[in-house]
Amino acid sequence: GEYIKNWRPRYFLLKTDGSFIGYKEKPQDVDLPYPLNNFSVAKCQLMKTERPKPNTFIIRCLQWTTVIERTFHVDTPEEREEWTEAIQAVADRLQRQEEERMNCSPTSQIDNIGEEEMDASTTHHKRKTMNDFDYLKLLGKGTFGKVILVREKASGKYYAMKILKKEVIIAKDEVAHTLTESRVLKNTRHPFLTSLKYSFQTKDRLCFVMEYVNGGEV
Questions:
Q1: Contact of 205 with 189, CB cutoff 8 Å
Q2: What is the pTM of this model?
Q3: Where is the Protein kinase domain (predicted)?
């Protein structure tokens, strides 16, 4: 786990809703003990490694305001392949379900943003999603959301991703202000100001991907 430096034996169950639950003792079909670990593999990233032990894999997930990495070791390469394939399949299915809900759900005040408003890509490539980035570390957080240092998978470039919660923006009547900020950042082309590279939305969040200036304000 993210806080434990020694290896501890655990028995995990992966559920179709994305829950990945760990137990100290091997769980039976009935009378499951209280879990020691419980997190979601939704939107996770998987990495295989042979260090510090062979047949190791890492699950990196974004939980609220923190990027968490959990490291697992299994006995054989085949067992590792089975686990990573199963986890990826569940994560992919959850992503498809979320996209379907976004397409079918009633539009709210902030969901009504036009396609051009929330697609600030400076190129004509396909629309970005959260899966197009690696999430490296938390840069800051506040009332409306957080800012995370990310790396674009396709280019390897580093950006600052501002993730805002739609419900908080609506509750605090900040919709107009948020859209204005998006337009200003989108049109900014100045050597001393950060500009907006991409923007997109999920069911419950707005995501703004900006130039990253190490040591600067975000």
A1: no
A2: 0.48
A3: 133-218
- The long-range contacts involving 63-67, CB below 8 angstroms and separated by at least 24 positions, are 63/39, 65/138, 65/141, 65/146, 66/138, 67/135, 67/136, 67/137, 67/138, 67/148
- 98 in the same domain as 131: no
Q: Average per-residue pLDDT in the chain? A: 75
Structure tokens, 136 = 């490296």
Q: Are 128 and 155 in contact (CB under 8 A)?
A: no
Which of 53, 72, 104 delimits the end of a domain? 104
Q: Is 172 annotated as a binding residue?
A: yes
Domain limits for position 147: 115-211
| CATH code at position 19 | 2.30.29.30
For the stretch 18-54, pLDDT in tens is 889 888 888 776 566 678 888 888 888 999 999 889 9
Residues 32 and 81 in one domain: yes
Q: CA-CA distance, 86 to 66, in Å (whole number)?
A: 24
